[in-house]
Amino acid sequence: MQQAVTQAPGTLSAEEDRRLNPFGTGFAQEIERYDWEDTIRAVEGATDADVRRVLAKAAGRRGRLTPEEFGVLISPAADPFLEQMARMAMEATRRRFGKTMSLYIPMYVSNACTNKCVYCGFNHDNPFTRTTLTMEQVKAECEAIKKLAPFDNILIVSGEYPAVSGVDYMEQVLAVCRPYFNNMTIEVQPMKQEWYERLTRAGLNGVICFQETYHREAYKRYHPRGMKSHYEWRLNGFDRMGRAGVHKIGLGVLIGLEDWRADMVMLARHLRYLQKHYWRTRYSVNFPRMRPSESGYQPNVVLTDRELVRLTLAFRIFDEDVDISYSTREAPEFRDGMMQLGVTSMSAGSRTEPGGYCSTPDALEQFEVSDERTPAEVVEAIRRAGLEPVFKDWDAIFD
């Protein structure tokens, strides 16, 4: 369904924000305990002795690391310990996940969006005709994906436009996708708790949401208009997911906006908070680096390959249970190298525009992919690494 849409601002008043988040508390309030600049200073001030102490604690398995100890492992002082961290991360991954790599595929169903995120190809000011798939087109995409490979894990993605791709639309999409996929995750606009509950009853297994940055003031500059401009509404959305009993929650920040070390320590704090309050839920993390998009926005911060390696290793040492996912944003050689070092799930064969699996439509992409290999080629790379590709993560029998 091609449509040129008039994008509404979609903003919330303070009263509406309180009404939509009636509990009034969540991690958006918890994060006020932590100062951004103090976090940066603590990471930058870590010493060789601090790194040795944290690694010894992790190696001896003397309790979970704290977010502050995780900060030590991503500090400049930890760089000489990269090989030791790699060995520890590999051991932790094998201990918890075995020699497996879970595979999933994203399906974009709409690029209509009310937000004006300055870095995103879906920015509503970009002069492109927006595409929202009909249910017939969604079914055709499902069938095309199944011809690519036996994917059973699907990530359903849309821009944030509640009037077009809100809860009613997503419920219909889930109903169409369910005969094809046992594990369905969404990456859409944050929703009310009762909407997450409703979608869970419709077969939803997981929700992914990127906070983009935990820096409250900077967040406003990157998201000047639209529902996404409301920092607390988005950040407390993870609490609403947890209270709704969502089976798996995915977190992440967009690396390239603000100081990546501070953002990652904040994300580690957020994860520990969620694990404490919603302990029945599984969690995943993703470390997306900014990729070219129609916005033309250039990153403020560059994360090198070596730094991303150490960040991944540090997070695996920090938490052995969390699923660490790499998307096709990253280059093939880099993804192949990380298969042994903490990563436990990957996308393959990704198209980031609606209708991309059935044809090559003239639709707006969210970002460019780097790994353009077919799913079969990715599977072969996984097997060369001595791992077993896993297409299925959940079964209807467990519902």
**Poorly predicted runs of 5 or more residues:** 1-14
Please estimate the helix content.
40-55%
- Range of strand content: 5-15%
Average pLDDT rating: 89
Radius of gyration: 20 Å
Q: What's the number of extended β-strand segments? A: 11
Taken in chain order, the helices and strands follow as EHHHHHHEEHEHHEHEHHHEHEHEHEHE
Q: Spatial order of the strands in the main sheet?
A: 2-4-5-6-7-8-9-10
User: What spatial form do the alpha-carbon principal axes imply?
Assistant: globular
Q: With helices defined by DSSP (H or I, 4 residues minimum), what is the helix count?
A: 17
The major sheet is characterized as: 8 strands, parallel, barrel
Distance between the termini: 33 Å
Structural class: alpha/beta
Description:
- This protein is an alpha/beta fold and 399 residues long.
- It has 17 helices and eleven strands.
- The strands form two sheets. Strands 2-4-5-6-7-8-9-10 form an eight-stranded parallel beta barrel, surrounded by four helices. A two-stranded antiparallel ribbon has the order 1-3.
- The two termini are 33 Å apart.
Topology:
Blueprint: E1 2-3, H1 14-20, H2 27-30, H3 36-44, H4 48-59, H5 67-73, H6 82-97, E2 100-110, E3 130-131, H7 135-148, E4 153-158, H8 162-165, H9 167-177, E5 183-187, H10 193-201, E6 206-212, H11 216-222, H12 231-235, H13 237-243, E7 248-253, H14 260-277, E8 282-286, H15 305-318, E9 323-326, H16 332-338, E10 345-347, H17 375-384, E11 388-390
State the gist of this model.
The chain is α/β, with parallel strands linked by helices and 399 residues long. It is built from 17 helices and 11 strands.
